[in-house]
Every structure is written in structure tokens, then in C-alpha cells.
Fold:
Amino acid sequence: MLKLCVGAERVEDLAHRQATHWHGEPRHVTRMWPKREAELLNGGSIYWIFKGLVLARQRILGLEATRGDDGIERCALILDPMIVRTQAQPRRAFQGWRYLDAKDAPADIPEGRDHEEPLPPDLARALAEMGLR
Structure:
């Protein structure tokens, strides 16, 4: 699943928001219940887009019905607290979320390199568009 990470410019911003807001069990609440629920719960992830680049993912551990203050029922994606950095992959902006086929998903950054300082977004985007990650 692809989702814009609204209000966060960096992966660290997402991690901080989840740590301070959800206290251990991060979730993302969405209006629609995914039709491809079985696929998402069988090792699926939410891939986060920051400023036009997919840069991270989190495994989806479960789905839970939740009701907002407005009385409308929504779907909460229960997420693994571990955020995995991925190779930069450019993506255009869109509303809501989109399904992402496994064959099109960006690769995880190899263990040991995931704590390196990320490239500036413009450079990462240019390299990804050239196929150089």
C-alpha cells in the first residue's frame, strides 16, 4: 500500500509522531476498508511517500474498525513500530492510498546502511529517476 506521509518531511518526523502519539502501537486511520485485506495481512506493508519519494515502509499487522469523533466508522491499520528505510523511489502525489504490487515495491536499504544520512531529496529523486539508487 502506498500513502503520502502528510505533515512529515523526513522519516524521523514520522517516527517521532508515531512514538509520541501512539505510544508503542502505531496506527494509521483511513476512511475506506481495504478490499485486498488478505494480501495486506499476509506480509503487506504501507510504503510512506515523503516529498515525492518513497523512503520507508512499515509492516501492516492488522486492521481494526474504529469510530471517529464524527461518528463515522473507519479502518485503523495497525502498524509494526519498526520503520524500515527503503531505496528512494519517485511517486506523484495522490489522495488517499493506492495498492502497490510487490514487484513494484522499492527494495529495503541493506542492514547497516539504514542509519546513514539520507541524500538530499532532489538528489535522491534524480538518481532514482535515472535508475541509480
